[in-house]
Amino acid sequence: MPAPPSPVAPPDDRKIGNIERLRGLAALAVVICHIAGHFYGFTRDSPGPERLFAWLGQAGVALFFVISGFCIRLPEARALAGGGVVRLDVREFLARRFIRIAPPYWLALAASIAVGALIETELIDGARGPVDIAAHALVLHTLWPSTFLGTNGVFWTIGLEVHFYLAYLLFANRPARVWTAAALLALGLAVFGAASTTLPADNPWRIVGQGIFLTSFWQWYLGALIADWWVQRRPAAPAAVLWMARAVAVAAALSLGLADPRVLGLHINGWILPFAAAAIVALFVVRPAHSPAPSRLLEPFNLLGRASYSLYLFHPVALSLAAFAILQGALPAWAGPATCLALAILLAMASYALVERPLLRWRSRLRRNRASSVVGEPAEAATA
Protein backbone atom coordinates (compact mmCIF):
# COMPACT_ATOMS: atom_id res chain seq x y z
CA MET A 1 0.00 0.00 0.00
CA PRO A 2 1.55 3.34 -0.99
CA ALA A 3 2.40 5.59 1.89
CA PRO A 4 0.57 8.92 2.12
CA PRO A 5 2.60 12.06 1.46
CA SER A 6 4.52 13.16 4.50
CA PRO A 7 3.43 16.43 6.15
CA VAL A 8 7.03 17.08 7.12
CA ALA A 9 8.34 20.15 5.32
CA PRO A 10 11.04 19.50 2.76
CA PRO A 11 14.59 20.45 3.68
CA ASP A 12 15.82 23.85 2.69
CA ASP A 13 18.34 24.21 -0.12
CA ARG A 14 21.16 25.06 2.24
CA LYS A 15 21.11 21.68 3.98
CA ILE A 16 20.93 19.65 0.80
CA GLY A 17 23.46 22.03 -0.73
CA ASN A 18 25.85 21.26 2.10
CA ILE A 19 25.47 17.56 1.46
CA GLU A 20 26.20 18.11 -2.22
CA ARG A 21 29.26 20.20 -1.42
CA LEU A 22 30.50 17.56 1.00
CA ARG A 23 30.10 14.95 -1.70
CA GLY A 24 32.17 17.05 -4.10
CA LEU A 25 34.90 17.58 -1.52
CA ALA A 26 34.95 13.85 -0.73
CA ALA A 27 35.49 13.05 -4.41
CA LEU A 28 38.19 15.70 -4.64
CA ALA A 29 39.92 14.22 -1.58
CA VAL A 30 40.13 10.83 -3.30
CA VAL A 31 41.50 12.42 -6.47
CA ILE A 32 44.18 14.33 -4.54
CA CYS A 33 45.12 11.14 -2.68
CA HIS A 34 45.74 9.25 -5.91
CA ILE A 35 47.58 12.15 -7.57
CA ALA A 36 49.89 12.50 -4.56
CA GLY A 37 50.48 8.77 -4.48
CA HIS A 38 51.28 8.44 -8.18
CA PHE A 39 53.38 11.56 -8.76
CA TYR A 40 55.00 12.02 -5.33
CA GLY A 41 54.94 8.53 -3.84
CA PHE A 42 53.02 9.57 -0.73
CA THR A 43 51.52 6.62 1.15
CA ARG A 44 50.05 6.04 4.59
CA ASP A 45 53.48 4.71 5.58
CA SER A 46 55.28 7.94 4.64
CA PRO A 47 57.34 9.20 7.58
CA GLY A 48 55.97 12.72 7.88
CA PRO A 49 52.71 14.67 7.64
CA GLU A 50 52.67 14.03 3.89
CA ARG A 51 50.95 10.75 4.70
CA LEU A 52 47.81 12.81 5.21
CA PHE A 53 47.54 12.94 1.41
CA ALA A 54 47.16 9.16 1.39
CA TRP A 55 44.68 9.34 4.26
CA LEU A 56 42.46 11.67 2.23
CA GLY A 57 41.42 8.74 0.07
CA GLN A 58 40.14 6.65 2.95
CA ALA A 59 38.49 9.69 4.53
CA GLY A 60 36.76 10.51 1.25
CA VAL A 61 35.41 6.98 0.88
CA ALA A 62 34.09 6.92 4.46
CA LEU A 63 32.39 10.26 3.88
CA PHE A 64 30.88 8.95 0.64
CA PHE A 65 29.42 5.92 2.38
CA VAL A 66 27.77 7.99 5.12
CA ILE A 67 26.42 10.54 2.64
CA SER A 68 25.02 7.75 0.49
CA GLY A 69 23.18 6.26 3.44
CA PHE A 70 21.78 9.67 4.34
CA CYS A 71 20.53 10.49 0.84
CA ILE A 72 19.06 7.07 0.09
CA ARG A 73 17.33 6.91 3.47
CA LEU A 74 15.87 10.43 3.44
CA PRO A 75 12.62 9.73 1.51
CA GLU A 76 11.64 6.85 3.80
CA ALA A 77 12.68 8.82 6.87
CA ARG A 78 10.26 11.56 5.87
CA ALA A 79 7.47 9.11 5.14
CA LEU A 80 7.96 7.42 8.51
CA ALA A 81 7.91 10.80 10.24
CA GLY A 82 4.50 11.41 8.65
CA GLY A 83 3.01 8.55 10.62
CA GLY A 84 1.90 6.48 7.64
CA VAL A 85 2.66 2.87 6.78
CA VAL A 86 5.82 2.86 4.70
CA ARG A 87 6.20 0.32 1.94
CA LEU A 88 9.16 0.93 -0.32
CA ASP A 89 8.40 0.25 -3.96
CA VAL A 90 11.32 -2.10 -4.56
CA ARG A 91 10.97 -2.14 -8.32
CA GLU A 92 10.99 1.64 -8.58
CA PHE A 93 13.80 1.97 -6.07
CA LEU A 94 16.05 -0.41 -7.99
CA ALA A 95 15.13 1.20 -11.30
CA ARG A 96 16.08 4.64 -9.95
CA ARG A 97 19.37 3.30 -8.64
CA PHE A 98 20.11 1.59 -11.97
CA ILE A 99 19.50 4.76 -13.97
CA ARG A 100 21.63 6.76 -11.56
CA ILE A 101 24.56 4.36 -11.26
CA ALA A 102 24.91 2.17 -14.33
CA PRO A 103 25.30 4.40 -17.44
CA PRO A 104 28.17 6.61 -16.14
CA TYR A 105 29.78 3.52 -14.62
CA TRP A 106 29.71 1.61 -17.90
CA LEU A 107 31.08 4.62 -19.75
CA ALA A 108 33.94 4.87 -17.27
CA LEU A 109 34.53 1.13 -17.57
CA ALA A 110 34.83 1.42 -21.36
CA ALA A 111 37.21 4.37 -20.99
CA SER A 112 39.29 2.41 -18.47
CA ILE A 113 39.60 -0.55 -20.84
CA ALA A 114 40.66 1.74 -23.69
CA VAL A 115 43.23 3.62 -21.61
CA GLY A 116 44.47 0.35 -20.11
CA ALA A 117 45.48 -0.73 -23.60
CA LEU A 118 47.83 2.28 -23.72
CA ILE A 119 49.39 2.21 -20.28
CA GLU A 120 49.07 0.33 -17.00
CA THR A 121 49.10 2.30 -13.75
CA GLU A 122 48.31 1.46 -10.16
CA LEU A 123 44.65 2.33 -10.81
CA ILE A 124 44.17 1.14 -14.41
CA ASP A 125 45.07 -2.45 -15.27
CA GLY A 126 45.22 -3.08 -19.00
CA ALA A 127 46.08 -6.77 -18.65
CA ARG A 128 42.67 -7.87 -17.43
CA GLY A 129 40.81 -10.50 -19.45
CA PRO A 130 37.16 -10.96 -20.40
CA VAL A 131 36.21 -12.57 -17.07
CA ASP A 132 37.39 -9.54 -15.11
CA ILE A 133 35.71 -7.14 -17.52
CA ALA A 134 32.44 -9.09 -17.42
CA ALA A 135 32.51 -9.18 -13.62
CA HIS A 136 32.97 -5.42 -13.56
CA ALA A 137 30.25 -4.83 -16.15
CA LEU A 138 27.79 -6.82 -14.02
CA VAL A 139 29.09 -5.15 -10.81
CA LEU A 140 30.04 -8.56 -9.40
CA HIS A 141 33.76 -7.88 -9.16
CA THR A 142 33.91 -7.46 -5.37
CA LEU A 143 32.63 -11.01 -4.83
CA TRP A 144 36.01 -12.54 -5.74
CA PRO A 145 39.51 -11.45 -4.67
CA SER A 146 40.86 -12.00 -8.18
CA THR A 147 38.53 -9.37 -9.69
CA PHE A 148 38.24 -7.06 -6.69
CA LEU A 149 40.89 -4.56 -7.81
CA GLY A 150 40.72 -5.08 -11.54
CA THR A 151 40.17 -2.89 -14.57
CA ASN A 152 39.70 0.32 -12.56
CA GLY A 153 41.04 0.42 -9.02
CA VAL A 154 38.26 2.58 -7.58
CA PHE A 155 35.35 0.51 -8.86
CA TRP A 156 35.31 -1.67 -5.75
CA THR A 157 33.30 1.02 -3.97
CA ILE A 158 30.66 0.94 -6.71
CA GLY A 159 30.28 -2.79 -6.16
CA LEU A 160 29.79 -2.17 -2.45
CA GLU A 161 27.23 0.56 -3.17
CA VAL A 162 25.12 -1.96 -5.07
CA HIS A 163 25.36 -4.31 -2.10
CA PHE A 164 24.32 -1.48 0.20
CA TYR A 165 21.21 -0.81 -1.86
CA LEU A 166 20.19 -4.46 -1.76
CA ALA A 167 20.83 -4.73 1.98
CA TYR A 168 18.83 -1.56 2.58
CA LEU A 169 15.71 -3.35 1.36
CA LEU A 170 15.77 -5.28 4.65
CA PHE A 171 15.62 -2.06 6.69
CA ALA A 172 13.75 0.44 4.51
CA ASN A 173 10.29 0.10 6.03
CA ARG A 174 11.28 0.52 9.67
CA PRO A 175 12.99 3.29 11.65
CA ALA A 176 16.78 3.27 11.76
CA ARG A 177 17.97 2.17 15.19
CA VAL A 178 21.23 2.66 17.08
CA TRP A 179 21.20 -0.95 18.19
CA THR A 180 21.00 -2.06 14.55
CA ALA A 181 24.06 0.04 13.75
CA ALA A 182 25.85 -1.49 16.75
CA ALA A 183 24.98 -5.01 15.59
CA LEU A 184 26.23 -4.25 12.07
CA LEU A 185 29.45 -2.81 13.52
CA ALA A 186 29.97 -5.94 15.62
CA LEU A 187 29.42 -8.09 12.53
CA GLY A 188 31.89 -5.99 10.57
CA LEU A 189 34.55 -6.28 13.26
CA ALA A 190 34.08 -10.05 13.47
CA VAL A 191 34.30 -10.53 9.71
CA PHE A 192 37.30 -8.23 9.37
CA GLY A 193 39.07 -9.90 12.27
CA ALA A 194 38.52 -13.30 10.68
CA ALA A 195 39.76 -12.02 7.31
CA SER A 196 42.86 -10.49 8.89
CA THR A 197 43.81 -13.73 10.62
CA THR A 198 42.99 -16.23 7.88
CA LEU A 199 43.56 -14.54 4.50
CA PRO A 200 46.98 -13.98 2.89
CA ALA A 201 48.55 -10.57 3.36
CA ASP A 202 48.13 -9.72 -0.34
CA ASN A 203 44.43 -10.60 -0.46
CA PRO A 204 42.36 -7.52 -1.45
CA TRP A 205 39.69 -8.42 1.09
CA ARG A 206 42.36 -7.98 3.75
CA ILE A 207 44.26 -5.05 2.22
CA VAL A 208 41.16 -2.89 1.77
CA GLY A 209 39.60 -2.77 5.22
CA GLN A 210 36.38 -1.33 3.87
CA GLY A 211 36.36 -3.71 0.95
CA ILE A 212 34.22 -6.56 2.23
CA PHE A 213 30.54 -5.67 2.20
CA LEU A 214 29.89 -7.14 5.65
CA THR A 215 32.64 -5.00 7.16
CA SER A 216 31.40 -1.72 5.72
CA PHE A 217 27.61 -1.68 5.62
CA TRP A 218 27.49 -0.26 9.13
CA GLN A 219 29.15 2.90 7.81
CA TRP A 220 26.39 3.36 5.25
CA TYR A 221 23.80 2.69 7.95
CA LEU A 222 25.21 5.57 10.03
CA GLY A 223 23.97 7.85 7.26
CA ALA A 224 20.50 6.31 7.56
CA LEU A 225 20.54 7.03 11.29
CA ILE A 226 21.43 10.66 10.62
CA ALA A 227 18.57 10.95 8.09
CA ASP A 228 15.99 9.72 10.62
CA TRP A 229 17.41 12.00 13.33
CA TRP A 230 17.44 15.02 11.05
CA VAL A 231 13.86 14.57 9.85
CA GLN A 232 12.55 14.04 13.38
CA ARG A 233 14.50 16.80 15.15
CA ARG A 234 15.05 19.46 12.46
CA PRO A 235 18.14 20.62 14.43
CA ALA A 236 19.46 24.17 14.38
CA ALA A 237 22.38 25.89 16.11
CA PRO A 238 24.06 29.29 16.24
CA ALA A 239 26.17 29.72 13.13
CA ALA A 240 29.44 30.47 14.98
CA VAL A 241 29.10 27.44 17.24
CA LEU A 242 28.11 25.25 14.32
CA TRP A 243 31.07 26.23 12.17
CA MET A 244 33.44 25.66 15.08
CA ALA A 245 32.00 22.20 15.62
CA ARG A 246 32.32 21.43 11.91
CA ALA A 247 35.96 22.50 11.93
CA VAL A 248 36.67 20.28 14.93
CA ALA A 249 35.00 17.28 13.25
CA VAL A 250 36.96 17.76 10.03
CA ALA A 251 40.21 18.20 11.99
CA ALA A 252 39.49 15.03 13.97
CA ALA A 253 38.88 13.05 10.77
CA LEU A 254 42.14 14.27 9.26
CA SER A 255 44.21 13.83 12.42
CA LEU A 256 43.39 10.13 12.46
CA GLY A 257 45.70 9.84 9.46
CA LEU A 258 48.68 10.88 11.59
CA ALA A 259 48.25 8.06 14.09
CA ASP A 260 48.07 4.30 13.80
CA PRO A 261 46.84 2.84 17.09
CA ARG A 262 46.29 -0.92 17.21
CA VAL A 263 44.10 -3.17 19.33
CA LEU A 264 44.94 -6.88 19.34
CA GLY A 265 47.20 -6.21 16.38
CA LEU A 266 44.43 -4.65 14.28
CA HIS A 267 44.54 -1.07 12.95
CA ILE A 268 41.62 0.83 14.47
CA ASN A 269 41.86 4.32 12.97
CA GLY A 270 39.89 3.10 9.95
CA TRP A 271 37.11 2.01 12.31
CA ILE A 272 37.07 5.34 14.13
CA LEU A 273 37.05 7.33 10.90
CA PRO A 274 33.42 6.55 9.91
CA PHE A 275 32.22 8.04 13.20
CA ALA A 276 34.14 11.22 12.41
CA ALA A 277 32.62 11.17 8.90
CA ALA A 278 29.15 10.72 10.43
CA ALA A 279 29.80 13.68 12.74
CA ILE A 280 30.78 15.81 9.73
CA VAL A 281 27.61 14.87 7.84
CA ALA A 282 25.40 15.44 10.90
CA LEU A 283 26.92 18.86 11.57
CA PHE A 284 26.64 19.97 7.97
CA VAL A 285 22.91 19.20 7.81
CA VAL A 286 22.20 21.16 10.99
CA ARG A 287 20.61 24.49 10.11
CA PRO A 288 22.57 27.60 11.10
CA ALA A 289 20.30 29.95 13.03
CA HIS A 290 19.72 33.36 11.42
CA SER A 291 22.19 32.74 8.63
CA PRO A 292 22.08 34.53 5.25
CA ALA A 293 21.39 32.80 1.97
CA PRO A 294 24.30 30.82 0.52
CA SER A 295 26.82 32.92 -1.39
CA ARG A 296 27.24 32.58 -5.13
CA LEU A 297 30.88 31.86 -4.36
CA LEU A 298 29.73 28.37 -3.35
CA GLU A 299 28.43 27.58 -6.84
CA PRO A 300 31.70 25.94 -7.99
CA PHE A 301 31.43 23.59 -5.02
CA ASN A 302 27.80 22.88 -5.90
CA LEU A 303 28.82 22.01 -9.45
CA LEU A 304 31.65 19.85 -8.16
CA GLY A 305 29.15 18.03 -5.95
CA ARG A 306 26.76 17.41 -8.82
CA ALA A 307 29.57 15.95 -10.93
CA SER A 308 31.24 14.12 -8.02
CA TYR A 309 30.16 10.65 -9.14
CA SER A 310 31.75 11.10 -12.55
CA LEU A 311 34.79 12.73 -10.97
CA TYR A 312 35.28 9.64 -8.84
CA LEU A 313 34.77 7.26 -11.77
CA PHE A 314 36.95 9.02 -14.33
CA HIS A 315 39.88 10.36 -12.35
CA PRO A 316 41.90 7.10 -12.72
CA VAL A 317 41.47 7.49 -16.50
CA ALA A 318 42.75 11.08 -16.29
CA LEU A 319 45.71 9.99 -14.17
CA SER A 320 46.65 7.27 -16.66
CA LEU A 321 46.35 9.65 -19.62
CA ALA A 322 48.62 12.16 -17.90
CA ALA A 323 51.11 9.39 -17.12
CA PHE A 324 51.01 8.23 -20.75
CA ALA A 325 51.61 11.79 -21.99
CA ILE A 326 54.64 12.09 -19.72
CA LEU A 327 55.94 8.72 -20.88
CA GLN A 328 55.62 9.82 -24.52
CA GLY A 329 57.42 13.09 -23.83
CA ALA A 330 54.34 15.16 -24.64
CA LEU A 331 54.01 16.51 -21.10
CA PRO A 332 56.73 17.54 -18.63
CA ALA A 333 56.65 15.53 -15.41
CA TRP A 334 56.26 18.66 -13.26
CA ALA A 335 52.94 19.42 -15.01
CA GLY A 336 51.53 15.96 -14.38
CA PRO A 337 49.57 16.61 -11.15
CA ALA A 338 47.87 19.80 -12.37
CA THR A 339 47.12 18.25 -15.75
CA CYS A 340 45.64 15.17 -14.11
CA LEU A 341 43.40 17.24 -11.85
CA ALA A 342 42.22 19.50 -14.68
CA LEU A 343 41.56 16.56 -16.99
CA ALA A 344 39.69 14.66 -14.27
CA ILE A 345 37.40 17.63 -13.68
CA LEU A 346 36.92 18.13 -17.43
CA LEU A 347 35.94 14.47 -17.95
CA ALA A 348 33.62 14.61 -14.94
CA MET A 349 31.83 17.71 -16.18
CA ALA A 350 31.43 16.21 -19.64
CA SER A 351 30.03 12.97 -18.23
CA TYR A 352 27.66 14.85 -15.97
CA ALA A 353 26.41 17.17 -18.72
CA LEU A 354 26.09 14.53 -21.44
CA VAL A 355 25.09 11.43 -19.46
CA GLU A 356 24.10 12.01 -15.84
CA ARG A 357 21.99 15.14 -16.09
CA PRO A 358 19.90 14.04 -19.11
CA LEU A 359 19.20 10.69 -17.44
CA LEU A 360 18.23 12.36 -14.15
CA ARG A 361 15.83 14.68 -15.96
CA TRP A 362 14.34 11.75 -17.85
CA ARG A 363 13.94 9.84 -14.60
CA SER A 364 12.21 12.81 -13.00
CA ARG A 365 9.73 13.00 -15.88
CA LEU A 366 8.96 9.30 -15.49
CA ARG A 367 8.35 9.73 -11.77
CA ARG A 368 5.97 12.61 -12.31
CA ASN A 369 3.95 10.46 -14.68
CA ARG A 370 3.23 7.67 -12.24
CA ALA A 371 2.36 7.27 -8.61
CA SER A 372 5.24 6.60 -6.25
CA SER A 373 5.25 4.68 -3.01
CA VAL A 374 7.60 7.17 -1.35
CA VAL A 375 8.01 10.90 -1.13
CA GLY A 376 10.22 12.41 -3.85
CA GLU A 377 13.97 11.99 -3.62
CA PRO A 378 15.59 15.30 -2.65
CA ALA A 379 19.16 14.46 -3.51
CA GLU A 380 21.00 11.78 -5.37
CA ALA A 381 22.99 9.20 -3.48
CA ALA A 382 26.66 9.74 -3.15
CA THR A 383 28.67 6.92 -4.70
CA ALA A 384 32.36 6.19 -4.08
Mind sketching the topology for me?
Blueprint: H1 13-40, H2 51-81, H3 90-116, H4 130-137, H5 145-148, H6 156-168, H7 178-198, H8 204-207, H9 213-233, E1 236-238, H10 239-255, E2 262-263, E3 266-267, H11 269-285, E4 287-289, H12 299-306, H13 308-327, H14 336-368
Parallel strand pairs: 1-4
Antiparallel strand pairs: 2-3
Give me a quick take on this structure:
With 384 residues, this protein is an all-alpha fold. It contains 14 helices and four strands. It has helices spanning 13-40, 51-81, 90-116, 130-137, 145-148, 156-168, 178-198, 204-207, 213-233, 239-255, 269-285, 299-306, 308-327, 336-368, and strands at residues 236-238, 262-263, 266-267, 287-289.
Structure description:
It is a single chain. With 384 residues, the chain is an all-alpha fold. It has one domain. The protein is 66% helix and 3% strand. Strands 1-4 form a two-stranded parallel sheet. It has a two-stranded antiparallel ribbon with strand order 2-3. Helix 1 (13-40) packs across helix 12 (299-306) and helix 1 (13-40) runs parallel beside helix 13. The two termini are 33 Å apart. The model is unreliable at 1-15 and 371-384 (pLDDT under 50).
Rounded to an integer in angstroms, the radius of gyration calculated over CA atoms is 20 Å
Strand content: under 5%
The average pLDDT score comes to 86
Number of beta-strand segments: 4
In one word, what is the shape? globular
User: How large is the count of helical segments?
Assistant: 14
Order of helices and strands: HHHHHHHHHEHEEHEHHH
Low-confidence stretches: 1-15, 371-384
| Main sheet: strands, sense, barrel | 2 strands, parallel
Number of domains: 1
| Helix percentage range | 55-70%
Measured distance between first and last alpha carbons: 33 Å
Strand arrangement within the widest β-sheet reads 1-4
